[in-house]
Write a structure and sequence with these properties.
By secondary structure, the protein is an alpha+beta fold. Among the domains are: 37 residues, no CATH class; 45 residues, no CATH class. It has a two-stranded antiparallel sheet with strand order 1-2. β1 and β2 form a beta hairpin.
Amino acid sequence: MAEKVILVDDIDGTEDSDVAKRDFEVLGRTFTIDLSEANDKRLRDALATVEQFVDRAREVKAAGRGRKAASAAKVKGYTNSDVRAWARENDVEVSARGVIADEVYAAFIQAHPDAAPDTAPDTVPDTVPAAQAPPADQPDDDA
């Protein structure tokens, strides 16, 4: 003999013959809940009301993680606040907010050698030192 399954309304806890699994959609996501006919109607009415507001509203995108702060490539182990505080204490002109000038980072690193960013050993310099570059009026040997 098959066992009878009794569903309980997830909203008010009633056990009734009209309680059933009800699927509904909100903003493109599907949910399921056990509801009586009366609570299902309440849910559908509430969703219709919310839909009126959503149809007239603009979606606000959640803030992203953003890109990594430029200071991470400029100094190691210190924050922009650390750099700014050091600059103010040492009469180095620095903006209160926004971008910190490369000269300020350079002075900070000179005073804090441990702040020098690590450079990857496999990086290639953007320019060839003058001693290695062929003279401008002579073509190099590969040409």
